[in-house]
Amino acid sequence: MDVISVIRTKRDHGELSDEQIDWVVDAYTRGAVADEQMSALAMAILLNGMTEREISRWTAAMIGSGERLDFSALSRPTVDKHSTGGVGDKITLPLAPLVAACGAAVPQLSGRGLGHTGGTLDKLESIPGWRARLSGEEVLRVLEEVGAVICAAGEGLAPADRKLYALRDVTGTVESIPLIASSIMSKKIAEGTGSLVLDVKVGTGAFMKTLDDARELARTMVALGGDAGVRTVALLTDMSTPLGRTAGNALEVRESVEVLAGGGPSDVVDLTVALAREMLAGAGIDGVDPADALRDGRAMDVWRRMITAQGGDPDAPLPTARETHTVTAPRDGVLTRLDAYAVGLAAWRLGAGRARKEDAVQAGAGVELHAKPGESVRAGQPLLTLHTDTPEVFQYALGALDADALTISPPGTPHAARPVVLERIA
Ligand code: URA
C-alpha cells in the first residue's frame, strides 16, 4: 500500500477501501506516513467527505490504534457525557457528581482547552492540590468508592486520534463532520463506557454553526455509538451565547459549586438536569429525579468526595486574578445579543486559554457576565468584568468585544430567549 494512492483516491472523490483505511491510520500512528501526507489526506476528507462505511471503519481503526478500558467489574452501570465544546461550558463539573449521586458510575475522561473553548481539566486544576493524572487502578477505585471521576485520558487511548487531532488543529482541518465524529467516538468507545450522552453545541461559540450541521454530526456519532454497542443519545444545545455567567477556569468552578449548592444560573441548572436525566435513562436507572439530588445536597457531597479523592481541597479558596476591568452599558435598553464566540475569545486573550498545547493557563482569568440576553440594563450598569493577571492584555481582550458582540436594543424591545436544549437525537 502506498500513501499517495490513498490521498489520490480521496482527492478524486473516491471511496477508501477498508484496507486503505486500516493501513493509513496504522502507518500514521507508527510514523510511516508523514504529517504532510496525513494533512493532505485530512484536507481531502474535509473537502470531499466520507461515506458511513468509511467513517465507521476509520473510527474502528482509531480505536484499534490503542488500548480499550474495561469497567465491567464495577458494581454500578457506567455512563459518560461528551460536549463538543462551548463558552462557559462547565456542565461536566456539577453533572458528573450529580449522576453519581443518583446511582451511576461516571468515568469522565476529559481534555484541556485549545482556542476559545475551555477545557474541563484546566478548570479543575484551579482547585488547590487537584490532580488530573490518575493511574488505571486509581480511576477504578475512585469510581467504585465515589461514583465519579474526572481525569485526563491516558496516552494509550486512541493514540491515532491524539496525533491526528493535533495535526488537524494546525492545518485548518478540524471542521469536518467525519473527522470530528470519528475523533470523539473513538475515544469514547475505547474508554469502555456502557452508555453515552452527547451534548452537541450549536451557534457562534461552537464548531457547528448551524442546526443542520449539528444534526448531521449528532446522527453520525449516535450511529457510531450504536454500532459499537454503546447506547448513545445526543442533545443539540444552544451555544449562541455563553452558558451561565462566567467563562474562565476558577470563575467557572465557583459557578459550578453554586449550582451544586442548589443555586446558580438557570441555564446551567436546566442543562445539567436535562443531561443528567438522559444519562440516568441510558444507565437504566429509573425513579430518581436528579433535580432533587441537586437541591438536597447529595450531589455536593459527591463533588466534595471526588475532589478530595483526587488530591484537591474542596474548601480551599479559589485563585482570583490580580486585575479586573469592568465594561458598563452605554445606554438604557435590553441586552438582545451577547455573542458566545466573542466572550470566549476575550476570556482566551485574558489568559484563560492557551494558544499552543504547552502554554500555561491563568487560573483566575476570564469574563464574568452581569447581564444575559433578555435582561434590561441601565446606562452605566456593569455588563462584563474582565479578569487577568496581565493587565496589558485588557485592550486586546476588549478588541474581541466589538460592536457586533453585544447589542443593546431600545427599552421594551421584546426578546424571545432561545431554549437551551434545541433537539434530541437518538
Ligand atoms: N473534539 C474532539 O475530540 N475531536 C474533534 O475532532 C473535535 C472536537
UniProtKB/TrEMBL annotation:
Coiled coil: none annotated. Residues 334-407 form the Pyrimidine nucleoside phosphorylase C-terminal domain. Keywords: Glycosyltransferase, Transferase. This is Thymidine phosphorylase. Homodimer. It is an enzyme of class 2 (transferase). Belongs to the thymidine/pyrimidine-nucleoside phosphorylase family. It comes from Allostreptomyces psammosilenae. The keyword Glycosyltransferase applies. Transmembrane segments: none annotated. One of its GO terms (molecular function) is 1,4-alpha-oligoglucan phosphorylase activity. One of its GO terms (cellular component) is cytosol. Its EC number is 2.4.2.4.
